[in-house]
Amino acid sequence: MTDDLSDLKAMMDSATPRPDAARRAENLALAQKNFEDLQGSRIAPRPTPANGANALWTGVKTMLNTFTSKAALTTTTAIVAVGFLALTPQMQDVLRPPSVPQITMTEFDGAISEPRIEDGPLRVDELTSDMLERRPVTEPLGEVLQEPLIVPEQEQAFEDRSTTATARAEAQALGSAAVSDEAESAPQTQSLVMEESEPPSLPQRLQIAPPAPVEMPAPTMRNLAAPQNTVIAPAPMPADDLVVFAPHVDTEAFPTETPNTLKITSEEPVSTFSIDVDTAAYSVVRSSLSRGQLPPAQAVRIEEMINYFPYDYPAPDAGEAPFRPTISSFQTPWNADTQLVHIALQGEMPSMDDRPPLNLVFLIDTSGSMNDPAKLPLLKQSFRLMLDQLRPEDEVAIVEYAGSAGQVLAPTAASERTTILNAIQSLGAGGSTNGQGGLQQAYAVADTMKEDGQVSRIILATDGDFNVGISNPDALKDFIADKRETGTYLSVLGFGRGNLDDATMQALAQNGNGTAAYIDTLSEAQKVLVDQLTGALFPIAGDVKVQVEFNPAQVAEYRLIGYETRALAREDFNNDKVDAGELGAGHSVTAIYEITPVGSPAQLSDPLRYAPDTVAASSDELGYVKLRYKDPGEDTSQLIETPIIGESIPGTEANFAAAIAGFGQLLRDDSYLGDWGYDDAIALANSNRGEDPFGYRTEAVQLMRLAQSLSR
Amino acid sequence: MRMMTSDEDLAEEAAHGDGQAFASLLDRHYERLFAFCFRLTGARAEAEDLTQDICAALPAKLASYQRRAKVTTWLYRVAVNAAHDRRRKRATYAKATTGWGDWETNRTAANRDTNEQIDWLTTAMNQLNTDLRDTLALVLDDMTHAQAAEVLGVSEGTISWRISEAKKALRAIKEKEDVA
């Protein structure tokens, strides 16, 4: 290759853009769909005028056309007779798919004077003419339809043929009256049916056949189409052929924890978990629902949905611990025989007038995948909103990362608003995603900004798609856990859908002493970065862990709703080395257990016959809650303990939390809800909206209604 | 495990109806396919559309895949054919595809992230006739003349001749511009 050609190549290489991620997902989905369509069409023999569903009628009609009326009468009578025959026990055996031997089918075909009996595989020319006839007029991709000519012969197994025979017989039995109406040429009419009833990109007609044997909607072909459709619909193709239309080819990743299962108190009386003030799951659910899709079950983290909402729990008094637990129990909305234990923590709101100066490092993902209106542009707007909340003495630095990491803005006082805004505005997307490099640089920048008495925090804005350097959530965890020791907090803001790596974002925020939020709209940015900014930026308690010990004399079974990704081992509760969630200023955290009292009819497990009878039945406490937390920057934890006592009347806040817990379970399709459905969740949430000054709870009710419609 | 499987094995499995194999095959080659489509069309939007055409047609095309060809060769052949079809369709309402007709569209589409040099490249590529352009697109993608010949179904000599023609044409365009 000569020099000018390699120049050209270099130019070409640099000119070549990265494919658009959304289009990529779309195109891959399209390919997969066409692939599946094609598979379906290969399994079942393609119906043609000569061999297909209508073949019998074609033959019979040809016959009738040449017969005198007397002969026609004889033949139709014979057909009815055969129809009856088809209902006799022997014939039923013959009809039962799919193990019918071909020879029997042939006899059957012969018995009804089928003019053409095909035993062998379909001939190529049959397929050809059929395919050509059926090609939709507007189909731009001729090749799609011409290719299946090369159908492997072995796929025309005779069980398929026999099912067609079954279908024929059924049609026979059901629709013989229609025959005499039809004198015109059947093949033509049939191809007309095809063209009108098929969407352009579906060359495979079997998939669009209605599952129930009812008449076609188009009135012009009522006579002919009715028996024909009856034939197609019951064809025994695999049920999933009908539902293959939406293969998931996007690259979103969600944590794979299964929902918490029911625990039996006598076997496992202690439940331990870390608090979680993330809100990402709720926003992801909202974004899915607003796009008209039910969210993937794994995207639904119920604790994050519950904790999305501000609650009006009693706040701690001055001089007390930084947060105050409120514990109540009340009857479960979805099961009258169980109770919910509602554990609420309300963090204090320290006076913000003398808050310490803040060092913020914006770590911004500018990889090619961020090039989407819901990503980088929304991110820029969000940061503008946040900038107004900062004080002159705060400092801001910006690090961007794509293929490599780079500092866009050296640490700058927040008072220099224009400089910071210009830097944010200058960000553009392109290249791969070296998240690890970016994090390293951000932590380095944060180190240089650190002074005594200041709070340093990195705010990582990304779609989570780390594809250079460490990209495995577990490895990132270790990396972040090291950096956490420097005292710098890490918050993660997720943007965009399509390749959202929720699992990685979770891993980062949980291990970096931070929170994860998902920003899908500007109003969400307002909530996270303006209304609740103080809580997001100023921690009041670190490593908050909850341990509940249930009293086996009172509680037979219990189940923690949500917190799957936050489970801790029992022994980790007292181990101050084990990391847990942080509580921000003014944050509230809610955890809900569903418990089955001893002797309740709702108990799912049978008591053991030979269990040692060691339960001390003296206490009427349901259980005992222990909380551990560290003051910010401290290494030793402190303990708060409080018992769970009997049933009470739930307040608005607890009821709303229960409604959201129910909503989350409906979306995750948990099996503990019985008949309780969206209607009940909507009613419960709607009557407990409380003051709701910003309409968050109203929005939740709307989402429930949307989910209800989508799940029908 | 799938990453270890060769393209050819994947293609064969896919041809026998393995949806997983098909998905990973396409996933593996999507970027490359897109880059090639960009070379063929010279505009991002066009390349996206062409890639979509190919994706839509690929499952059916799989049946025509023969083990003796490399998957990339076969894939490029599909791409070149799809590009031809697109051009043919366009030609009915835009006669000037091979000339300056696309220039303005391409320029505006590419404007955002290109500089003058790349502008020149797009323009120049668009002035070549389609045969030269296809050939150049293949050779610029590190294909040998022999491989390009296999994709386009012509002899190796033809490829070499076309490349020298393309170079001549590009040089001519450059000189003309330098004068102007």
Question: Could you characterize what this model shows?
Answer:
The complex is a heterodimer of chains A (712) and B (180). Chain A is α+β, with helices and mostly antiparallel strands and 712 residues long. Chain A folds into three domains: 22-243, no CATH class; 263-350 and 540-605 and 614-650, Immunoglobulin-like, CATH 2.60.40.1230; 358-521, von Willebrand factor, type A domain (Rossmann fold, 3-Layer(aba) Sandwich), CATH 3.40.50.410. Chain A has 23 helices and 16 strands. Chain A has helices at 3-15, 21-43, 55-66, 69-87, 89-95, 102-111, 124-134, 142-146, 158-175, 186-197, 222-232, 280-290, 302-306, 376-387, 417-425, 435-449, 473-484, 502-511, 522-531, 533-537, 652-668, 678-686, 696-711; strands at 263-264, 270-274, 323-332, 335-347, 358-365, 395-401, 405-413, 455-462, 489-495, 516-519, 539-550, 555-561, 581-584, 588-597, 623-630, 638-644. In chain A, the strands form three sheets. Chain A has a six-stranded mixed beta sheet with strand order 7-6-5-8-9-10, with helices on both faces. In chain A, strands 1-12-14-4-3 form a five-stranded antiparallel beta sheet. Chain B is mainly alpha-helical and 180 residues long. Chain B folds into two domains: 1-93, Orthogonal Bundle (Rna Polymerase Sigma Factor, Chain: A), CATH 1.10.1740; 128-180, Arc Repressor Mutant, subunit A (Orthogonal Bundle), CATH 1.10.10. Chain B is 75% helix and 0% strand. Chain B has helices at 7-15, 19-41, 44-61, 71-91, 103-111, 116-127, 130-140, 145-152, 156-179. In chain B, helix 1 (7-15) packs across helix 2, helix 4 (71-91) packs across helix 8 (145-152) and helix 8 (145-152) packs across helix 9. The model of chain B is unreliable at 93-101 (pLDDT under 50). At the A-B interface, helix 1, helix 2 and helix 8 of A face helix 2, helix 3, helix 4, helix 6 and helix 7 of B.
